[in-house]
Every structure is written in C-alpha cells, then in structure tokens.
From TrEMBL:
<protein>
    <submittedName>
        <fullName>Alpha/beta hydrolase</fullName>
    </submittedName>
</protein>
<keyword id="KW-0378">Hydrolase</keyword>
<dbReference type="InterPro" id="IPR029058">
    <property type="entry name" value="AB_hydrolase_fold"/>
</dbReference>
<dbReference type="GO" id="GO:0047617">
    <property type="term" value="F:fatty acyl-CoA hydrolase activity"/>
</dbReference>
<dbReference type="GO" id="GO:0006631">
    <property type="term" value="P:fatty acid metabolic process"/>
</dbReference>
<dbReference type="GO" id="GO:0006637">
    <property type="term" value="P:acyl-CoA metabolic process"/>
</dbReference>
<dbReference type="Pfam" id="PF08840">
    <property type="entry name" value="BAAT_C"/>
</dbReference>
<dbReference type="InterPro" id="IPR014940">
    <property type="entry name" value="BAAT_C"/>
</dbReference>
C-alpha cells in the first residue's frame, strides 16, 4: 500500500510540473522532472497540428522521460493557441527562440514525427546549439506547405522560404485518388528540386537517430531515411548516426521508444 501511494504521488508530481510560456508563433509547455540529467527533450508533432506531446495520448511516454531525469518541452507550431493556423511557411527562428527560452544551459535533443521529424532535422541543421535529433518517419527534403495550391514552402528561415520539392504533374493523379505515398514518390522524381530542397543533415551538431516504416502508406520514409544516411556517410559525419527501418505502416515506429531511449542513453547523456 505504501509503495502504491508513493507511485501515485510521483505520477501526480510529474503531472503538476507543467508550465506554459509565452513564445511568439509557438505554443510552449514545459515539464520538469527530477532534473538529474542536464538535457531538455523537445517534442514536435506532425501534420495533425496542435501540440501533440502535451496530449493525454503521449503522457505515458512524456512521463517516462521525466522519470529518467530529462526535462521535456512540448511545442505546437501550427493549429494551436498562439501558432499559425496552417502548416505553411513556419518560421524555424520562432521555434528555435521558443526552445532557447526553455533550454537555459541544458543540452537540447529534438524528437519529431512525420512533418515534426522534418522540422527537427531542419532546426538542428540550421542552429548549432541543438545537440541531437530523433526523427521518426521524416523526409530528407522540404515539401510544400498545406495550402490549397501547394505553391509555398512549409518552412522559412530568416524570413525567407526554404527551397521545397513542388507538386508536379506526375503527382496529381496520385493526389486525386488520395495516394499520398504515390504523390510524394512522383514529386521526388524532380531531381533538380530534390537537390535544392535537401535538408543539410551533415550540419547537425550531435547524434542523429532516424526511424522509418517499411510499409509506409503516407510517404517513402525508408527510402528518404536511406538518402540521409548516404548524405551523412558522404560527408564523413563525425557524430553517431543510425537508421532503424521498422516493419509496418506509418505509425509503426511510434511503438519503438525502447530503441529511442537506448540511443539517448548511449549517445546523448
């Protein structure tokens, strides 16, 4: 009975340490645990919008980070209070400012899924004070924003849109029938645009873990993670990096947090 009470008190204390900060263009919710590790984990959701890592769905994983001594920052960068309504021309600078405001002297590791994985990689590639990335089913390039005509980039840096791979004619039939993987694969046939829009992952200042889904119905994530591995190898990347292809559909890697915790424990203490 005493042990049960202690566990309940611990769970409550972890839940009660959340605080929201005013950060322009971004919703920031900070969770502090025991604080034995001097590392801040930043959680970024995907194209669903909102602040996914502050939700009840992700509370067990979030609390696991806290229990292991990490601090945690849940960021919403569109479709939530204080953030843009649409995933379009999201400012890397504003997201980075929100991270720096929370981080203080802590090391910073970003975890992002799907479009949040793209954002995690872009942030780490543009800001050297990010100390590592875990990207789940990410892209190796920037794609268009979620506007009606797909004519603008999803991301901007220093008030300039980042180059992106546009929707081409070959992608339209796939979009018309709701085949997102087919559409992305067709768009990636534009080799010139793909080269210009490639995320410069070689600039990341810390370890990189990529998780893909071998039967991804949304995008060719295993192929795209493979392209980033090739790029890191070609640039003789000096930090640890790993790609874990997970058997299953787009959401399958979300069941592999044991792998993520092992990677963090080994390389990101």
């Amino acid at each position: 009975m005493k042990l049960l009470l202690s566990l309940l008190l611990l769970t409550c204390s972890l839940s009660l340490t959340a605080r929201q900060s005013e950060t322009p263009g971004v919703q920031s919710i900070y969770y502090s645990g025991a604080g034995t590790r001097q590392t801040l984990i930043v959680g970024l959701g995907g194209s669903e919008g909102g602040n996914a890592w502050s939700s009840d769905r992700w509370k067990p994983v979030r609390d696991r980070f806290l229990e292991q001594g990490y601090h945690f920052l849940a960021l919403g960068y569109f479709r939530c209070k204080g953030a843009p309504d649409t995933l379009n021309r999201i400012s890397l600078n504003q997201v980075h400012d929100a991270i720096r405001k929370a981080a203080g002297m802590h090391k910073v590791i970003i975890i992002g899924g799907s479009r949040g994985g793209d954002l995690a990689l872009l942030l780490a590639a543009h800001f050297p004070d990010i100390n590592g990335v875990v990207a789940i089913v990410p892209s190796h390039v920037a794609f268009p924003g979620h506007t009606q005509h797909f004519t603008t980039s999803a991301w901007q840096y220093n008030n300039e849109e980042l180059p992106f791979v546009p929707v081409n004619e070959a992608a339209v039939p796939f979009l018309m029938k709701g085949d997102l993987r087919g559409a992305f694969s067709a768009m990636l046939q534009d080799s010139l645009a793909t080269e210009k829009a490639a995320i410069p992952v070689e600039n990341i200042n810390g370890p990189v873990l990529l998780l893909s889904a071998t039967m991804d119905e949304i995008c060719p994530s295993t192929y795209m993670c493979g392209k980033m591995m090739e790029r890191l190898q070609a640039h003789r990347f000096r930090y640890p990096y790993e790609h874990i292809p997970v058997q299953g559909r787009h959401s399958a890697p979300l069941q592999e947090f044991d792998c993520i915790f092992r990677f963090l424990d080994q390389y990101c203490r």
